[in-house]
Fold these 3 entries.
Entry 1:
Amino acid sequence: MALLSSSPKPSATPGHGDEWALVDVETSGLRPGQDRVLSLAVLTLDAHGRQTGEYHTLLDPGCDPGPVHVHGLTSERLAGAPTFGQVAPKVGEYLDGRVFVAHNAHFDYNFLSHEFARAGLVLPVGRRLCTLALNRLVGPPTADLKLGTLAAHYGVRQERAHDAQDDVRVLSAILRGSLGAAERLGLSLPFLDCPPRQGFRPRTPKVPCAYRNPGRLERGMPLVQGMKVSITGDTHVSREELVARSVEAGLNMTTSVSGQTSALVTNDPATASGKLRRAADEGVLLLDEPTYLRLLEDVRPGQAKGAARQPRAGRVPVSGATATPAPSAAPAVSVPEPRVPASTVTPLSTPKGRGRGPLAGRRVLVLGGTHGEAAEVRVRAVARGASVAVNLSAGVTDVVVLPGGEADTRRSRVTSLGLRVHDADWLLAAESVVLAESAESAEPVALAESTESAAPGALPRSVAENPRDGAELMVRGAVIDLSETGTAWTVAAAWAQHTACDVDVVAFALDAHEKVPGDEDFVFHGAPEHPDGTVRLATDGPTGQAVSVELERLPLEIHRVVVAAAIDGDATFSEVGAIEITALRGVGAAPAARATLDAATTERTMILAELYRRGDGWRLRAVGQGYDHGLADLARGYGVDVAG
């Protein structure tokens, strides 16, 4: 499996002198490779923020419009509208040469990429900016970062939610306010370069299997619905037809081989393909095509996924099968799993862990010091009830300056904002310091006038007035219960750009044996979405990426989803610095929990968090376990067949 792709990468452009194309799309679903755009709007601004053009249209998607209760676009309303192919050249004129801007930009960008590809064109976007990612950096005093909430904060009224034309109007005010707030904080804008997708084709979606996997096939026994089957090499019946007939029979067709695979179909078992090597390692039965076609004529009923759990059946024998051994692959790298006692579990429904202590409500940023010194200060701050920032956001109330911190480029911003500045000894006497400050003043130092009267983009008076600061504070190894698992949970990672390197966030969907059932269960920048859409990776900016998981839609064989980060190159996490992770329900929601993780010295990969089954529910653990090896070795340790 290749680990390379033309995925968006950080842009080196630091400035604001750009023209902007603000975009919003309404769609028939959430999956760009499968669903279609129903309406779109583009609003262009010059480098001074003045509107220079606007375009909006309904579209005939050629399919069911999907959730009409959300967007209100019925088939009747869309009847007679142009197809995307008819308007694509005009849309391209508005986008070409401008920075693509959207709220949750990877969603709109990916949908338009697919639509342009269907029209035989390339999306003319060189760079993009996500206002959701930008506001994660700014940290405005809002209950969440949804479009309507930010609209109220930045002084514009949202009149018609999920209407593309109104959404880009609102987005223009949010962009102006966000840029102003970022400038006051001295934040670099999270631009992403978007190279053209050469040879891009819309992906044929994987059809989810409705049946549980009953286990392996053995000689002389029939196929059973839910069995996992993979195909390798040339076939006499076309691959597409063979897969379609298998899916119709109730089989789970996969693109890779794992310990969960029931059978591998091949007409040439002597070929040293990766699938055949893996099948030999796992003891997966090989079927020739005639045998497989004969078995397809009588597939036995399986157990529906919604039915009560039953003990998994043993291996089932089958006649006419070929059990030719193949060359064995290299042994997997062992990846140890940190375990935390159950006593550390903290349910989200209780106030425990929400910043109790003398520094409760404070948000601390550390400047300067060695990696170890800064990490120690951050641990002390969290132990005293404070949350820890990795960037200078609007929520920061206190700054600890260690040796070398005076030269930090953010130091002048800290002074101009009037933030409290301390040395390392401050945390050792935190309780007496807080009591003294309370006696001197009934209010903390103000960063700006009241947000009610301040101009759009103004900074909050203090984090104590910021309702977003109610997130659960997690230390390394802490565990929380995840509620409302019907909504996708997102683990977002952010870091400061202390050194010139790329950091890639990845996810592994693991079975009960702590291995990926197939290579498709490894989600990374080259394959940013699981085929069934249950695990997705989004790149928000050069210092922020997020993994979203639809927990209730995950196959029952998936027991754990591991979220990790890996450095591309020879740098280490001691050079990158701390990584802050936040857990939230849905796009733009307020963080439900956060943790700041420091690897020690030489690590190049780090397990950030894991979501895992516990009874009928799910839990999240903040891990922070680093390893010296690279991403390829980490992937092999979880059973991914990495080429080379």
Entry 2:
Amino acid sequence: MKKKELLESRVLTATPKMMKLAESDQPVRKTGYCWEGTSFYEVYQYGLYMRCQILDGLLKVAFFFPQHMRAGGRMPAYELYVDKAAGKFLTYDRGLGRWLKAKLDMLPWPYSVCRSEKKWMSRQGDKLVRDYLGVEHGGYKGLLEYQLKVRADELKQRHKRETDPWDLDLEQTPDLPKDWERWVKKVGITENYIFYQYDRKGAETGYCTFCEKDVGIRKPRHNKAGRCPRCRHAVTFKALGKAGTVMTERDEMYLIQRCEDGFMIREFRGYRKYRKGDCRNPECSSWEIRRSIYGRNAEPLRAYYWGEYKQAETRWIETAPCHPNWYGDGRGRVYGKTLPSLDAKELRRTGLMEALQDNQRMDPEKYLAVLHNIPQLEQLAKAHMPVLVEECMSSFYSFKEAFKNPGSCSLLKLLGIDSQQLKRLKKNRGGRSYLKWLQYEKAVGRTLPDEAVVWFCREDILPEKLRFIADRMSMVQIHHYMRRQMRETGMSSREMLTTWSDYLSMACRLKMDTGDAIIYRARKLRQRHDELVELCGQKEHALRAGEILGKYPHVEDILQETKAVYEYAGEDYAVIVPSRIEEIMEEGERLHHCVGNSDRYWERIERRESYVLFLRRASDLKKSYYTLEVEPDGTVRQKRTMYDRQDKDIRDAEKFLREWQKVVARRMTAKERGLAEKSRILRNQEFLQLQEDRVVISMGDLQGQLLADVLMADLMENKEGTAGSALPMTA
């Protein structure tokens, strides 16, 4: 339809009869409600008047508003043009001079039209609409009925343009094998039962659903798992009087067939149902849910699933091929008769055939998806390592760490083991944990008994979990010691390792000789652990202190040596040197800064660059007040209280600190002066680096300020020191 020609067609004006009807149509005023409150509107007997004619093969319908006609207006508000042959319609808005493609129910009608149920059209007009459009109703209803049909046809055509290529692609789907239904019933659906009649003396015969025979049974119990004595399949015993209707779990099944592009993996789902009292005639149901098309080199091309398409119909819909990260459990039985010919060509470089021989239930789509990312999976499958194959499929990304030489074509080099270890790996059906222990053997050059390796794997213990003791005991000794402790104390392996590790950390904290077998291999481990907890007080601090002493063994000795130089008490304040690591950790917790958690401070104490001291009020020496970081000459790098702040009272305390610095200067020896010079050099280097990097504080009250500026302002140098820098206790 050409819009210019449509506008040049004859205008259908309101007829005298229509004008007379509108004049006599007195509106009724009604009350409505909206978000603004009460509103009023007028309702006419006929909310809309219509007139239609066929002009040049097109149906033209004019729409008039009663309020306009009562004011003497004869021109239509809208004009609808319908071309049935082309299946198109257009509406012209005469008031705004614009064309609209909307249906009648979507036009911007006045409120009075929407509230009026009746719409007027002459009998001749009704008949003309029905005859021209071929619809059941005339008038407004018939016009809308036709428009809805046009829109439905247009939508169907749009859908068809999308779905036709899918249907064309799926025309290459092969027919199902002739024995498919029997395979589904016997093999694909894996759950089977033995039904029997309950007898107080014990039933002696039952019906096996797999071999479909009456078999001898002995003392069966309802819902108990077992095996059929005839076919040896796993079954569940069901007493007919108790079972009712029985349904198997829904199983996944796969059919791999050759097609034009390469091959297709078809996924099915199915179950069996046994009606109450009828165990010999099961209802078997199966349906196809997915089709994936692969190329001749097993590369994924396209995939489809059976589902609801745009809420219009149920059909095959295009989707993405299986992703290696797919986490669902799609494992199922795979139809075997089509595999040999595919394995000779399309699947020859995948290892899928070998993987299916070792793992009867598998998701072949997931296997090929992982293979695309981990090509070494083919080597594992062809070497018949089912556990490694399954673990690789379940977490392929982290599994890469198991390969020592990923680019190697040799399986031994790939896994980082020798031929004898490979035989052990296969014999024990080892997984990644077993492989890690073999790699550990290779690294240390010492062979472990299979019994120990299997036990460690079963308990989920890897070599890295035993590093805390591996320097003092062999893995065989650890194996025997752990089993004995677990047997005597009833602890799990995880609890035992945690107890052992904590015990050694606390022993280190108490400066016990942890290299002595009597200590590290305590006969009554749990008892010794509990005794050290009592000695150490707070266990968490003791464990952390043990770790710190392991890295910085001289921290507490250095603090003891400095007491004579730096401890001093005045009338109002006192400077205290902590004796133990736990005291510094508790200070950091009470004042909520990280002086006890940052390794930087322990490192500085260890190399005598600076020390952590406590500033206390003389009236309460046990209560935390300010934490100080000072250099060997008494220069105060930092002074921080709650949440790394400085309150106004620090001004009064600084007077005492000046007095304290003079005392320190008198007590210093040549050794402290030499250390102070080195400390100043390190401090200045650090300060220059902070200025160059323009480091900004990102938390606390000092957030947004340059770290170098804050540290410079905080510095209180002694007369023998120079200006410098340190990191804040929030660093």
Entry 3:
Amino acid sequence: MKKLLYSIAFLALFSCDSDKFDSEVQLARLFSDGMVIQRDISISVWGKGIPGENVRVSLAGLVGSASVDADSTWIVELPKSEAGGPYILQVNEEKVNDVYIGDVWLAGGQSNMEWKLKSSVVGAEQEFEEGGNPEIRFFKVPNSYSAIPQTELKGGEWKVATKENLPDFSAVAWFFAKRNHAEKKVPVGIIESNWGGSPAEGWTDLEILAAQAHSYQEEAKDILANPEKWEKENLTNEKRREIRDLQAKSPDSLVANEVSSMEYNDSKWRKITLPAANPLQHIAWVRKKFSLKETGNVSLHLPDIEQMAFVYLNGKQVFYKDWGKPFDDIILPESNLLKGTNVLTLRVVNTWNNQPVIGSPGEMYLDQNGNKISLEGTWSYSNNIVEPELPIVEFYAFKPGMMYNAMIFPLAKYPIKGVIWYQGESNAGRHEEYKEVFSNMITNWRNIWQIGDFPFLFVQLANFMERKEVQPDSNWAFLREAQKNTLELPNTGMAVIIDIGEADDIHPRNKKDVGERLWLQAKNVAYGDKVLSSGPQFESFEREGTSLKIKFKSIGDGLQLKEGEELLGFIIGDSKGDFSKAKAELIDKSTVLVNLPENLANGEIRYAWADNPGVNLVNSIGLPAEPFRFNFE
């Protein structure tokens, strides 16, 4: 009778879960077919069950057992194992198939880590042609957030790196994993836990944040004190998100065809000037008429659109641009064009900040056989006549601790080799706080995993935005410095990518070099291979009259210029803080000479100090020099 009551209680405990259980144990979501378990460290297997029942776990000849605790949880520890597989993980009557033991890495951060191979990544087609690798597997943690620490993930499953699955994997993590497998000859598992646009404080324990005197301290304290209030608002916010996303996803086709047709009367719409003004909000519908003498060979050039866009020509949809996809020139179907007057209609939605963007100067036109028809100027615009305005959705996920509670804390018993991390863009405006919050986040994660100071490898921000030779007040430069200073923590490594960013895109498409530079860091930090893993690093300086000799380390066979004959990237500041471009030159394999202005008694030298600095100093294997600054006298 007692066992029957426990069984009833167990079923009631999970009655709200959609899963069905065929045995007396339930495994955590991470334990599923295709999983990879970390080698050379004790293995934790856990889940839920009927209190008092025994749980027996076996894997690769290893056996362990435990009893289910009164709170219905259980955990079994198995001895460490060498790499190998495939194996079967047996837990009572439950079987998890196709299990490998190898190296497991957590891939965290924001959109540049989240960025998928299929999203116009340089070299992705070759990866698709090669067809993946059956011994590399990815587990994508679904985006979720909570004011209360969670014990289980909201979903997710292990996926083998097949040709079909590969396009949806993190590009950076894939190139990293590929090198890990090739060089260490072991299966590799990647746990993706990342979220585009997310700040570091969202990935950190609330109790730590509440103790820090930073801009988010009071909010962290409030969430800690009133978690139920925040959970209620989170649920309400998600309902608004569902409504918004449903509205944004696609219009009613009949309505869309009507409002994009030549016959539609848009006299009640506003008149706006694009791209000079951008008053766009909600679901932005815009229309513009143009005239043609002939109907053939007409392409649309409109690369600057954020985020999603539906393109209509004379009442027919001719193109759809999804979030994260480039808007390449498109050939307008000749069958949809008319001699004389035509109408081009766009439906644009930006769910990131509710501010759609259409066009930029000189980049809005039709091209017919080399003749450009400008689309700049007056357009008709509406955001509430065709479709209702979008509900306001807050970024509660990015509040202190919210993602940590739902996407990191539930992972903490799963052994890992280490973390690869690409984040910082969202914290650039608060760079003065970043070193402390980022360092505390790393320490926080290491503490909850309880496997020591595991390797934590991160990417320094790429070059981005308008190129400026002199920009001493750059937030991105200060954020890069905060990242560099985080290297004070043990077992950390930083991949520098100051040379592969893109001025007009915060998401550089060269993810291969990013992943492989992270791997070089891993070889040093995680595996002790003692390879050259960083670009030239400032070591020391010596003043000689009106010049400075700057010594570098991590140079390999010597300093080089990646391109050109002039050494770029150095600026010099005087005692008043006024900066100007500095003339610099290589004088030997490890030294740069910087010329100083006459009568300059003291000042400051900075290298690669701008949002998007022009730089060309590399070491013998082509890795770029790290940004730095120092004072001299």
